[in-house]
Amino acid sequence: MTWGILEVAGPRRNPMTPRIQRTLPVWLGVTCVLSGCGVENLVRGRDEVVVEDVVVVETFEQEPHARVDLLFVVDHTGSMAEEQAALSASLDAFVLAIEDLGLAYQIGVVSTSLEPGEYGVLHGEPWIITPATDDPVEAFRQALEVGTEGNDEAGLAAMVAALTDDFAIEENRGFRRSDAGLHVIVLSDDDDASDEVLGSDPVEAALDVLDGEAVLDGALAQFSAVIGNVPDGCRGDGGEAFPGTRYAEVAASTGGVVASICEPDLGDVVEDLAALTAQYPTRFALQALPDGDVRVAVDGTRVDEGWTVESDPPVLVFDVAPQAGAEIQVRYTLAAE
């Protein structure tokens, strides 16, 4: 009996292509003493070809720098002058924090306006702020100058318009990257009022969009809110802030930060937002659904706990994201066809 090895490799979306090995016993022949066996016995005695399970090894590399798109949604009504100024004064701390974390970031800003030409359109020049932008802090500060003369407070609708292809906003081209996480941060002293656009349940509509923005490899799709305290509101230097109940509900559903807009210094708030943004992927899409034993190693060390495999679609999910730059190897079997 002779054994043969069949190797199959195919295209995939992960950084390294897995090698799939299929082991086949190859029947080469049968020896028979003709005087002692007839044709019937010869046929019955022939070995059957046995196909064994396929062993799959997939290798991933954790992102060396977390990629994230940050969308700021800023209330542009008349009561927001002091709050916008407080956020602007904290920008140095925010940009420094995300740069210290080594994030490959993009920042965009929209207002809560529903006016044509403003609705969901990114502000500023450039409209996308990146680490390569000349003076990112100043560019960010100018983008935040959305004004205080508006009447609309449709923050969730503005987010939906800025992110979804249905609106096809030419001015937003290049902002949303398919391989980057998303963190939406709203700043408002009142609750969302997007019913006219998003229907009777704007929270559910917003969560549907955020679910769609979460990429398969587990990058972020989170929402945070700097708002009036829930449930009673608050009073700060800029006056009274009403409870941002809807915003808080979206933030709670996505694991985001909820902070008070009545705090005179937003420095601590923006540092918390920056730290949350730095999360790395916990999910790694597999090429096939394992049918047998699964073994996982991180940087060459076998890991038996802290991960699971989901089936539809097949994804390896870690409880805690592997460190930046880590090599993740997954070995599993598939049933022979």
Write out key terms for the chains shown:
337 residues; alpha/beta; Rossmann fold; 2 domains; six-stranded antiparallel beta sheet; 9 helices; 16 strands; 27% strand
**According to CATH, what is the topology of the largest domain?**
Rossmann fold
Structural domains: how many: 2
Instruction: Give Rg in angstroms.
Output: 28 Å
Structural class label: alpha/beta
CATH superfamily placement of the largest domain: von Willebrand factor, type A domain
Write the H/E string, N to C. EEHEEHHEHHEHHEEEHEHEEEEEE
Please count the beta strands (DSSP E, at least 2 residues each): 16
Spatial sequence of strands, sheet with the most strands: 1-2-3-16-12-13
Strand content: 25-35%
Give the fraction of residues assigned to helices: 10-25%
Shape: elongated
Low-confidence blocks of residues: 1-44
Distance between the termini: 22 Å
Q: What is the CATH class designation of the largest domain?
A: Alpha Beta
Mean pLDDT: 82
The CATH architecture of the largest domain can be named as 3-Layer(aba) Sandwich
Give a quick account of the main beta sheet: strands, pairing sense, barrel closure.
6 strands, antiparallel
